[in-house]
Amino acid sequence: MRMRRKKHLDERLSDCAGRYINLRAEAVRFDAEEQPKYLCFRDLFGNDNPVELEIGCGKGGFICELAARNPDVNFLAVEKYANVLVTACEAAQEQGLDNILFLWCDAEYLPRFIPPHSVRRLYLNFSTPFPKKRQATHRLTHPHFLQMYKGLLTPDASLIQKTDGRVFFQYSLEQLSRTGYTLQSVSLDLHADGIEDNIVTEYERRFMEQGLPIYRVEATIHNEKE
Predict the structure, then answer these.
(1) Contact at 8 Å (CB) between 128 and 163?
(2) Do 183 and 144 sit in the same domain of this protein?
(3) What is the pLDDT along the chain (226 residues), one digit of tens a residue?
(4) Residues 138 and 201 in one domain
(5) Containing domain of residue 81, as a range?
(6) Count of alpha carbons within 13 Å of 102, Cβ hemisphere only?
(7) Separation CA 106–CA 30 (nearest Å)
(8) Which pTM was predicted?
């Protein structure tokens, strides 16, 4: 089912100009032989603070809370649907959070725009599990994506995933291990384990109310600088 376009979407996006970058059209035009067009974080944020990334930010509740708690960190938040992106941008604008930049694009385009080994932490919160076998390549913890993240992450960076899907979580653990990530922390019931500083997302709260466990893993890599 296609998502219904929100009323006044273009006007609302225009009101949030400067909060997001539309990379979708540029990514589609991108020639495979063309040099990447890396974003300059210093120009965008006006500082050299470390950068963290969330893929699939939804309405922005998680990334806005994280940015508010960490004003000395810059955050990139990726969302591919304009209907959802605009709500996240408006939330950041309302809270006056200048350390978030939203990227309107699909995850697979990120290496064309994010400089190599420039992100110190990656968040995957309640990504679509794509349960059918033929859909596996779309999972954000498929080996294709996990290898791609290695090119974006700094040495000794971490990847943090949360999900309510037990089967998807098991799949993610297996793929992380197979692609060279080290599992540092694995929780089969996040809230029972009492992980400190956890930010409860919109989906997470919904699943908690249903009495469902939340699965979480933190994994690290050990890239060598190119």
Answers:
(1) no
(2) yes
(3) 445 677 789 999 999 999 999 998 766 665 655 788 899 999 999 999 999 999 999 999 999 999 999 999 999 999 999 999 999 999 999 999 999 999 999 999 999 999 999 999 999 999 999 999 999 999 999 999 999 999 999 998 999 999 999 999 999 999 999 999 999 999 999 988 888 889 998 889 888 888 889 999 999 986 544 4
(4) yes
(5) 7-54+70-115
(6) 32
(7) 13
(8) 0.92
